[in-house]
Write a structure and sequence with these properties.
Blueprint (H helix, E strand, L loop, with lengths): L2 H19 L1 H17 L15 E2 L5 E2 L3 E7 L5 E6 L2 E7 L5 E8 L3 E10 L12 E5 L7 E4 L5 E3 L5 E6 L5 E4 L2 E3 L6 E6 L4 E10 L5 E11 L1
Parallel strand pairs: 2-8, 10-16
Antiparallel strand pairs: 1-3, 3-6, 4-5, 4-7, 7-8, 9-11, 11-14, 12-13, 12-15, 15-16
Helix pairs in contact: 1-2
């Protein structure tokens, strides 16, 4: 029965009751109509829509520190669970600006996978955020100056000289504050102009975790 036909029937029935039973019958009929109307209202259903996955600020590939801060964004008011190496280690609530933070997250030496998930007030769980793999590395990179040797003396047209040595692939290497490319086999080479008298040659190597090694020698130059 369509809604319009239903109400026409009720109006007709109301008139019959009014004529046959008077006002009390009409009041009973109005109560009946009210119950039908209320039954037509939609029943509030529990939210089953999962929140959007959290977004993490980029994390480093490697670090020498055993602790880092994890910062990200998600729907305000949702709870965020932090997972490290597949274990839920902490939980926080997203603030009104949509930001969340975990301070001093402890990492173990080696590889640490980090990701988060969001939970709303109805218990719906989001998909995981982007996963980051962070390596904790406390070892300083290998570094040597193979040529020249400490204390070497140079004359006349010997300048510029060639400074060469070895380190590790992937490090950032500088010779006297000038960037030098490291080859795939870990070796490096560059030319260096000398000044009159003693010259210090300083080479530094910094790996992806931030570990730094410094090597320095002195040579002498007489024009």
């Amino acid at each position: 029965m369509s809604q319009a036909v239903k109400y026409l029937f009720l109006i007709f029935l109301s008139l019959v009751l009014l004529v046959k039973f008077g006002l009390p019958g009409l009041i009973n009929m109005a109560t009946f109509i009210g119950n039908i109307s209320s039954s037509d209202q939609p029943v509030e259903k529990q939210d089953k829509l999962a929140p959007r996955p959290p977004r993490l600020n980029p994390l480093p590939e490697a670090t020498f520190s055993a602790q880092i801060n994890v910062v990200g964004f998600a729907e305000a008011g949702t709870s965020i669970k932090l997972f490290v190496r597949g274990i839920s280690i902490d939980e926080t609530v997203v603030n009104t600006e949509g930001e969340f933070k975990f301070n001093g997250v402890h990492l173990k030496e080696g590889e640490n996978e980090i990701y988060t998930v969001a939970l709303d007030n109805y218990g719906n769980t989001s998909e995981s955020s982007t996963s980051y793999l962070i390596t904790v590395d406390n070892e300083k990179p290998k570094l040597s100056i193979d040529s020249p040797n400490n204390g070497d003396r140079f004359f006349d047209k010997d300048s510029p000289i060639t400074v060469s040595g070895s380190s590790e692939e992937g490090v950032e290497l500088e010779v006297n504050d000038h960037f030098v490319m490291v080859k795939s086999d870990g070796t490096y080479s560059t030319s260096l102009n000398l000044s009159d008298g003693d010259n210090e040659i300083e080479v530094t190597a910094v790996d992806k975790a931030g570990n730094k090694t410094r090597v320095a020698i002195k040579v002498n130059y007489t024009p």
